[in-house]
Amino acid sequence: IMADAVTSTTLLDSDRLAIIQLTNTSDGTGESAVVKVDVSALQPNNFGKACTSVRLAKICYSTFGMSAKLLWVATTNTICWDLNENYADSEDFTEFGGLVNTAAAGGKTGDIALTTNNHASGDSYVIVLTVIKNYAA
Question: What is the pLDDT of residues 48-75, one digit of tens each?
Answer without folding.
Answer: 999 999 999 999 999 999 999 999 999 9
